[in-house]
Structure formats: structure tokens, C-alpha cells
Amino acid sequence: MNPPDPGDRSIAVTQNGWSVSVLDQRQLPWRVERIELTSVAMAAQAIREMWIRGAPLIGATAAYGLCLALREDSSDASLERNVALLLATRPTAVNLRWALERIRAAVQPHAGAARVAAAYRCAAAICDDEVRGNRAIGQHGLELIRGAAKPGRTVNVLTHCNAGALATVGLGTALAPIYRAHESGIPVHVWVDETRPRNQGALLTAYELGRAGVEHTVITDNAGGLLMQRGEVDMCLVGADCVTRNGDVCNKIGTYLKALAARDNGVPFYVAFPSSTFAPALASGRDIIVEERDPAEVTSISGLTPTGELATVNITRARAVNPAFDITPARLVSAYLTERGVAGSPQALGIQFELLSQQPLNQSSL
Ligand code: MRU
């Protein structure tokens, strides 16, 4: 499977050269609809209300959101105001801050129309880098899957949430190696955690695996442990919203429990992410802000009625809390998979940032 054409990507500049088209993920898999983002306010709403989601795509959408803001007002005040607006949309995925800082650095030397043009060039470069990076992650991860393949047997991979083309700009992170394995003729089957409360697995991962012709089965979030005990999972492969300096991994709520079950059953637990998800300024998972979302996401569930309407029903009257992410300690991660390769720690992959050399590494885990 090749990366989607720019026109099919989860995010793309439209033909007018300035507005931005995104896939409306709230409608999938029932309807495939795109929305045209024409203002920074719309871009911020799209991120906040999860019309789009997934750490790399959040970063790319924020980047273009800043372009839209600068197109309306390219002043320094507008730059700072809109960086703050976009930063406040979702707190956990570090790609958001990373993308905004990259655009800010690119536009600061310029003014007026040149500043706007520089912003769009930088946003396009962010997207192109993600596409290339996803392809490289796919290639490195392919070797892991190949290593697990045995003659006459299907490789069973368990994944959580959606870390595929819909969450990124290219092939995806955790799903990229699966697409490459499928394309290479390795028999692969994916256990797809439904991923309550928003069901990104059942709705989005299953949708995109199905489109690519990859064999998959949706399971409840609680089924993975049993499947691992039965020897029906060869590896877990998940994405990440933030990886801290000591290798702790923040990902969709439920990931940690899979990592615990994987360790207990001797199943390798791999985390795939682009360098833009690495946060060397955060020493460990304790420094991550975990997004708390609306409890209504827990107390209700949405789906398609027999008459084809999208509907939401309540499943309880009780009080609920809704932490959106959890932290998997580095000690439970078998290997990290980025565009640079596969390694036992992010540092070993050569993801070097100034902060790494300025501060001692904190190897403690949660
Ligand atoms: O809340 P979401 O849907 O934005 O969370 C997404 C995830 O947790 C993904 O697994 C993660 O961002 C990796 S995306 C390549």
C-alpha cells in the first residue's frame, strides 16, 4: 500500500490554494465526508471536537490552522494569539506544540505575504515529512513482522485505538508495518481493540484495514489478555501521543493494560511513533498532562440505527470520569519503532535534541 495521494490524504490544501480539506472522522465508517477548514477558528474546533484526531494529524491540522490565521492577520500579535488558541485545543499530543513551534520559527524572519507563504511552505513540509516518516516506520516494522512469521502461520498483531492513515498524513504509524507486511505477502491478521469510549478501533482502524484488504477482527477492550494467554497474539503494536525522555509512552486509555498483559504472557509490545511525538523536555510519564474529556463520552454510545441514522444513546445514569490517555512505563516496552529504526530506547534511535545533552537522562519508570 502506498501513501495516499495528496488529494486523498486525511488533510490536504484545496484547489484554491489556501483552505484545507480534512476527512470528517466523526462520520466514519458510515459516511465518507470531507470538511473545508476556512479559518483558524474552524481548525481549532476540528481538533477540539475531534472532527480529526491522532497525534500527527492534530499537528498537521494545527500547522495549517496557523497558516489560515496568518492569512487573515500576519502580525506578531496574531501569530502569538493563534499559537495559544491552537495549543489549548488538546493537551496531550505533543505533535501539536511541535508543529506550531516549527511554523513559528519558519515565519518569524518574514512579514506580510512572505510570512503567509513561509507558513504554508512549512505546513506542507511537515506533512511531507510525516508521509516519508510513516513509510520508513512501515519498512522497519515490516522486519519485526517478518521475524515473527512462521511457514503456514498467520501473524496475529493486536493494536489499540487508531494509529493508521486516518491518524496521520501518510500510511500511519502502528498500522504502517501491517500494511507493508500485507503488501509483501506475509499473512497477517489484526486484533482491533474497540477502544472505548470513542471506539476509534471499531470505527476507524477496522474501516481502514478493511479498505486495504487486511484481515482483522474487532474485540472488546478486555479481550486482549485472554487472547494473549491462549497464544493468539504474536505481538502488540500501538501508536503514541507522547514519548518522554525516559521512554514512557502516553497513548489512548487502555494501552497500559495491554502492555501489562503482554509482559505477563511474553508477548512483545512495540510502540511506533514519528520523532515529532518524542518529548525530550518531559523527563517521564509523570510530567504528561493527560486530557480529561467529557464524561458523556463514557455514559453514552453512538452508532447507526436500523434506518441508517447516526444516533447516540445513554448507557448509564451514573457519574463517570473520562481520562483519555494512560502511561505505559518504559520497562514494559519491548522496542520503539520510529522512522530511524527499531531500538530499545528512543535515545538509541538517535533522536537527539538539545535538551538531551543539557539534562541528565532520568531512567526511572513510573
Ligand atoms: O484521542 P485520539 O483519537 O486523538 O487518540 C489517538 C491515539 O491515541 C492514537 O493511538 C495515537 O495518537 C497515535 S496516532 C498515530
Q: What secondary-structure arrangement, pairings included, does this model have?
A:
Elements: E1 11-13, E2 20-23, E3 34-37, H1 40-48, H2 55-72, H3 76-87, H4 95-107, H5 112-148, E4 155-159, H6 175-183, E5 188-193, H7 200-212, E6 215-219, H8 224-229, E7 235-238, E8 242-244, E9 249-252, H9 255-265, E10 269-272, E11 278-279, H10 296-299, E12 300-304, E13 310-314, E14 325-328, E15 335-338, E16 341-343, H11 354-358
Parallel strand pairs: 4-5, 4-7, 5-6, 7-10, 8-11, 10-15
Antiparallel strand pairs: 1-2, 2-3, 8-9, 9-14, 12-13, 15-16
Helix pairs in contact: 1-2, 2-3, 2-4, 2-5, 3-4, 4-5, 5-6
Polypeptide structure, described:
It is a single chain. This protein is an alpha/beta fold. It has eleven helices and 16 strands. The protein has helices at 40-48, 55-72, 76-87, 95-107, 112-148, 175-183, 200-212, 224-229, 255-265, 296-299, 354-358; strands at 11-13, 20-23, 34-37, 155-159, 188-193, 215-219, 235-238, 242-244, 249-252, 269-272, 278-279, 300-304, 310-314, 325-328, 335-338, 341-343. The strands form four sheets. The chain has a seven-stranded mixed β-sheet. A hairpin with a 6-residue loop joins strand 1 (11-13) and strand 2. Helix 2 packs antiparallel against helix 3. The chain is globular. Residues 353-366 have low confidence and may be disordered. Residues 53-56, 93, 161, 163, 167-168, 173, 200, 239-241, 251-252, 324 line the site of 5-S-methyl-1-O-phosphono-5-thio-D-ribulose.
